[in-house]
Design a protein that fits this description.
Largest sheet: none
Structural class: mainly alpha
Helix content: over 70%
């Protein structure tokens, strides 16, 4: 069994909690409060900034030119294309570029990104991949699942989000990360695999906490 298959099978309980979170289901059926999605868009923008740094660290830790180039490409695509689309999409919810640039991270956004960066800076390339993969993989799975709901991808506000994450292009990104993890875990000891599984589980948990944070619009105490 490939390591990615082991992860997907073993972590289904928390995986399904992410898929069934009311924020995610609200995107799918179009009932999500726009204010909650607006809050999410701002925090997700801040998250993407640090997620891009993980790609940069991937290029640093890569041991072959092809992998370095792929991480560099992902960094470029995220910083110069995905975030531009994010700003355009945010504008539909009345979020200005100035608001995005001046926004402060919520406690969960800060904890999640700092954990990813800590693992990526101090760990191996395999650990870095394990930290970043739950975001890409779960968003792709969620996008595909929501895309199967009749009319969901045509919703005037949330359809674009569903189309983005169910797209072939995003799927190729997730698949590359999955395959890279399998490549870098082949032949590793059970002790090493257990460490990678723990990292993957932690960022999968953070994915759930991010949805929860967005649904309840949680900022620091006294700043709600």
């Amino acid at each position: 069994m490939k390591f990615s298959e082991r992860l997907h099978e073993k972590l289904q309980p928390i995986w399904r909690k992410n898929h069934h979170h009311p924020f995610v289901r609200g995107i799918g059926d179009g009932t999500l409060d726009q204010r909650k999605f607006r809050f999410y868009m701002v925090q997700d923008y801040l998250y993407l900034i640090d997620y891009s740094k993980v790609f940069a660290l991937g290029a640093v830790k890569a041991t072959d030119v092809e992998t370095m180039g792929k991480f560099a490409s992902l960094l470029n695509e995220t910083l110069n294309f995905e975030m531009a689309l994010h700003r355009q999409y945010a504008a539909r919810f009345g979020i200005s570029e100035e608001e995005l640039e001046q926004a402060k991270p919520s406690p969960i956004t800060l904890a999640y990104t700092h954990y990813m960066l800590h693992v990526s800076q101090n760990g191996t390339l395999a650990e870095l991949i394990a930290a970043l993969l739950p975001c890409a993989w779960s968003y792709w799975e969620i996008g595909k699942e929501l895309n199967e709901i009749p009319g969901a991808s045509e919703h005037e506000l949330y359809g674009g989000w569903i189309k983005m994450y169910s797209s072939k292009e995003f799927g190729e990104l997730a698949t590359w990360c999955i395959e890279l993890l399998d490549e870098h875990t082949a032949g590793k000891s059970e002790r090493e695999l257990a460490r990678l599984e723990e990292i993957f589980l932690n960022t999968t948990r953070y994915e759930y906490m991010f949805w929860e944070m967005a649904f309840h619009e949680q900022m620091w105490p006294g700043e709600e």
